[in-house]
Amino acid sequence: MAELNSTHPAARARTDRPAPRLLTVKRAWHLTPNMIRVTFSGPELDGFPNGREGGNCKLMFPEPNEAQQDFAARLIQGPPPARRTYTVRSYRADVQELDIDFVAHGDNGPASRWASHAQPGDFLGFAGPSTPKVTNFDADWYLVAADPSALPVAAATLEAMPRDATGVALFEMTSEEDRQQIDAPDGIAMHWLVDPEPSTPSTRQEDFIRSLDWPEGRVQTCIAGESGVIRALRAFLHQEKSLPRADTYISGYWKIGLVEDEHQAMKRAEA
User: Which residue, of 13, 25, 54, 266, has the fewest CB within 10 Å?
Assistant: First the structure.
């Protein structure tokens, strides 16, 4: 099925944005024990923009056993399906394949439930993508940090860096087996920390970053993850290290104890 008609009045009435694409699964597999990669392919990806790795997208999930025709109608007419924010991991225009990675939580939540059972021919709604979070690489040194929720944006950022970039990348994963191969520049020192209980507060990233020998020159960051960790790192970078906000992409992607809608409401209230 091609992209839903973006000129349909009902589709544009609520947001004045193009209607979502209805994407079809080509394959899905466990990239690591706690990460599922889903590859989408097909004519629905006609016109998908290049260079959006690391950009946000909105995914909309069908109910179990919901027919594709019914779901497609619901994307336009409502009621709206469950909607979550994800990251474009990679897009291969030559074969029209789009990869999105999902943290595996079993059936706990609509996104993980859908990804855990995804099979070729399954479908979901897709809106976006945004531009990547870091687009200019002109610093002397880079600091990248992520938990599983932010690994796709961190990996995409590392892979987009100039090959002579230097710095540190820090990943806090659920197990040793969750390490991934990332095409980072040789000058980026990669560190993997293990947090087997991601549902409890952690200071591992903050402790590690505070222990670094801080470099001379301009520093840029790409840091994302649990909001409590992000709040502490933001205070350290902005208040103690006086890094300009323009040089520090740092964002809370989730918060312990909250679903995404609740977390987004919290972020809006704090803005």
Answer: 13
